[in-house]
Amino acid sequence: KPASLALQPAITPELLQGRVHLKCSYSPPTPGAPVQYRVLWARLSSSGRREQVHQETTARPFSYVEMDGAQLRLGDTVFCTVTAFRRGSPEQQALPEDSKGFYAGIKFLPESLEIAEDGKEHVLTVLSTVPIACPGQDNSCKITLQLRTEDLGRQAPGPPDIALSACQVDLLPGPCSGGSCAAATVTVTAVTDLAQDGSRASRVSARPLAPRALLWTAHTPRDVKVTVRDLPTGNCYSFTDPHIITFDGWRYDSYKVGTFLLCGSVSRPFEVHVRQWDCGGHRSATTCNCGVAAR
């Protein structure tokens, strides 16, 4: 009966002779045993099926495949399947073992965001899971990403629901660790529109900007979906001679002449001042709003 040998195949990215490769590494079952390995490389198709792209038989505990932009492209999720057998006896083989899927390309972390219209900044990381190759010897060894936002499901044009801290970011080459070979951050903030328009969805997309390396030219990274949650908006009023209604619904009148603080925030530099003048003359003690200043 075939056995599982706990080969534990795993895929890591590597730069070989300036070109992006994926390496499938696996553990030999016992040191010095005359074992060979059949390694199948496959990519996940858009329909969710595995398509074989490369196969080899080797005695080494690793196998390489190049991200050539044709058989294997950025944006693919790649698997390697390893089967061990005794040299000269391919019919006596162990059970094939799968690696975890390795996404090769640019992605956002987190992959989705839910934020509120509260002015807070949320950090979005954009990273490459594969090394960035330098096509020449000059100093332009980077991938520049153009960032865009788009409101989803909006019928008529209007102000955007989210704002980014930058329109483009640079991915600079560095050592690969923790699933990232190059990373940059950008902050996302919900636009406070003071409209009761419910939760709205937007997306952030990244596109490589005129890369010289052919591998990156056709790469379309996955978008990140951002849901903006409405927060209830407060209102306060001062009108006619002046009747005042506060944020929490209290009502009273103010008949004094002068300049007054109508409202102010305790957490940010926001104030509204009103100026009231006598508008009743000799008949009644009445004042009216005649000016307003907001900071």
TrEMBL record:
Highest taxon in the source lineage: Eukaryota
Annotated InterPro entries: Dev_Signal_Modulators (IPR050969), Ig_VWDE (IPR057885), VWF_type-D (IPR001846)
What GO annotations for molecular function exist for this entry?
signaling receptor binding
Q: Does the keyword Disulfide bond apply?
A: yes
What keywords tag this UniProt record? Answer: Disulfide bond, Signal
Q: Has UniProt tagged this entry with the keyword NADP?
A: no
Which positions fall inside the VWFD domain? 234-295
Which terms in the GO cellular component ontology are assigned?
Answer: cell surface; extracellular region
Q: What is this protein called?
A: VWDE protein
